[in-house]
Amino acid sequence: MADGTVPAASPTSVAPSGDDAGVDDTQAGADVTAAVADIWSALLKVPRGEIGPTSHFFRLGGYSLLALQFVDRLQTELGLEVDIALVLGNPVLADFVAALPAVDGAGDLEEGEL
53, 52, 112, 63: which is closest to 87 by C-alpha? Predict the structure, then answer.
């Protein structure tokens, strides 16, 4: 504006549009991490507060049959279909979440992903 004020709808305050509207990758990642930690807590019978990004599934008491149950819970609770190899190869919480395949808005894996 001529008087030097910035209008209320400046570019920094405009909401995103299109496919990215309302999507915050950092928040989405935190939500998935929290959901995975909740499942671990229930399966491993470990208090939720003791599970963090560097927690190790097997060092917390996990074993192969619990890993299979974990894969099943990911499917039923989060709609994520992952192979057991992803769990076995990424037993640290943060590594596992980072290794998850991309998911589109409908919960389907994007083409070319696991």
Answer: 63
